[in-house]
Amino acid sequence: MSENSSIHHESTVVEEDTPRKGGLDGYFKISQRGSSVRQEVVAGLTTFLAMVYSVIVVPSMLGAAGFNQGSVFIATCLVAAFGSLLMGLWANLPMAIGCAISLTAFTAFSLVLGQGISIPVALGAVFLMGLVFTAITVTGVRQWILTNLPFGVAHGTGIGIGLFLLLIAANGVGLVVQNPHDGLPVALGEFTSLPVLMSIIGLAAIFGLEKRQVPGGILLVIIAISIFGLIFDPNVTYQGLFAMPSFGGEGESLLGTMDIMGALNPVVIPSVLALVMTAIFDATGTIRAVAGQAKLLDKDGQIIDGGKALTSDSVSSIFAGFVGGAPAAVYIESAAGTAAGGKTGLTATVVGGLFILLLFLSPLSYLVPAYATAPALMYVGLLMMSNVSKLDMSDSVDALSGLMCAVFIVLTGNIVTGIMLGFGSLVIGRVVSGEAKRLNAGTVIIAIVLVAFYAGGWAI
């Protein structure tokens, strides 16, 4: 039996032949997937609020490497708008795309500051990465990888991403901090601080609202905490409503400044390949996890319109290199929207439209503090951890390899590292247990490639 065959048994939402409706409902198959226009719009707004921090974090990271922050702000909004609209209008899936934080950090701190690569060459590397990433996608290599994700590792990725999201959100508000003393690396933060208290209260409120099935409960909590912060937190201030977008002064615009020939330099090529490999498994794992959480899988356990989803995020990286942003990927925060009921591309389309508006309403982004969105992200993280119940413990090698993948995503702070260890332990475990016949060639090849990628020192 092939390693991924048991994936067919998980619960799915299948596209059934139901009467077609016109307008938004017909185009996005809203009723067909058991949703409503209102539910999709609320989900889109929820996802947007959960990931809007990127327009502050990405320019800050790239700014530290010498990029013009005004130009990067524009690029970040454009990449999120382009990618999310492509995902929504073409792939019809509720997944939002933006500049990936991990790949942004690599671009800023490894490529530019670490290796001394110029900004145009770094953008050329991002553009090339997008081209290679898209080629791998359209030739079916990425779909082949997705198809060969073993049952345990597939669910382990979802569990690990959930834990990772929980840790990121908790750390962002100071609930969990770096341990200043000897011992384990993390410790409880200042429990009585406003961000920590509001995050915990907000998370508990989401539990209650979702239990009562209050429509838009997650979004209501984000809005309520933001209003509370505006009234009682001096750090949350109204800084205006409207601001014209600016690409920076003369000579500071990043639009079309990429140096592709410079990125083809043998010194830069390994960095391009590292970006590609990381994006393949990081973004692919995220797409699989979000689709699984939203139950947007067909009868064979594969993502509905998965090929379009994979192409949407790879093409977005090409666009990112052109406009002066960091490599793009589906955001884990998309799961906040699917938890709020998003099931179609209308969710992603709303996100894309809001990022276009943000180009002109940038001051409003400062009205949503981190502790307003942290409860939503922690809630989604906890939901994604429910994938533990889908592991088949009667097949201990597969299940424990999935758990190893999950745990090391969090312990190393890297999705690809967890996937690599999950694949490696599965292959070795099958061989040692005398179950080598249960492995398929795809699983073994992926495991070897991933281990070689890490052993060669190319991993980000």
Question: Can you tell me about this structure?
Answer:
This protein is an all-alpha fold and 460 residues long. The chain has one domain. Helix content is 61%, strand content 3%. It has a two-stranded antiparallel sheet. Strands 2-3 form a two-stranded antiparallel sheet. A hairpin with a 7-residue loop joins strand 2 and strand 3 (186-188). Helix 4 (69-91) runs antiparallel to helix 13.
Short characterization:
Pfam families: Xan_ur_permease. The chain has 19 helices and 4 strands.
Structural class: mainly alpha
Q: Count the helices. How many?
A: 19
The pLDDT mean sits at: 87
| Shape, principal axes of CA atoms | globular
| Count of discrete domains | 1
SSE order: HHHHEHHHHEEHHHHHEHHHHHH
Strand order of the largest sheet: 1-4
- Estimate the strand proportion: under 5%
List unreliable stretches of 5+ residues. Answer: 1-14
Instruction: Using the CA coordinates, give the radius of gyration.
Output: 21 Å
Helix residue percentage: 55-70%
> How many DSSP-defined strands?
4
Largest sheet: 2 strands, antiparallel
Cα distance, first to last residue? Answer: 34 Å
